[in-house]
Design a protein that fits this description.
Layout lengths: L1 H9 L23 E6 L3 E4 L6 E6 L4 E9 L2 E6 L3 E4 L3 E3 L5
Antiparallel strand pairs: 1-4, 1-7, 2-3, 4-5, 5-6
Length: about 100
């Protein structure tokens, strides 16, 4: 009987506060920073910076919504269609603060 009591005492007890799994939430995408950016010369929209053209040609004075992401001279846009364009073919028309 003593052996049985010793075995019961050595069994692990359940932790009242078990460890929680690490959070798997991702940070949200950046909010569009500017919607007063326009195309200065017709330019092809790209699926990724420096990558294949989507077939969409953005005309001069097309208003863009910029996401805030920039890579090697390319900027990501969300409007009028998601993609990437060459930054030097755009102009910021936002009023100066």
């Amino acid at each position: 009987m003593e052996l049985a009591q010793n075995q019961l005492q050595s069994e692990p007890t359940t932790n009242p506060n078990p460890p929680q799994p690490a959070s798997t939430t991702h940070s949200p995408e950046p909010e569009p920073v500017q919607s007063c950016v326009i195309v200065t010369t017709p330019t092809n929209l790209r699926s990724l910076s420096e990558r294949q053209q989507t077939g969409t040609l953005l005309q001069k004075n097309t208003q863009l919504t910029v996401t805030g992401k920039e890579e090697n001279g390319w900027i990501e846009i969300s409007e009028p269609e998601p993609g990437w364009i060459w930054k030097h073919r755009t102009k910021n028309t936002c009023p100066a603060n």
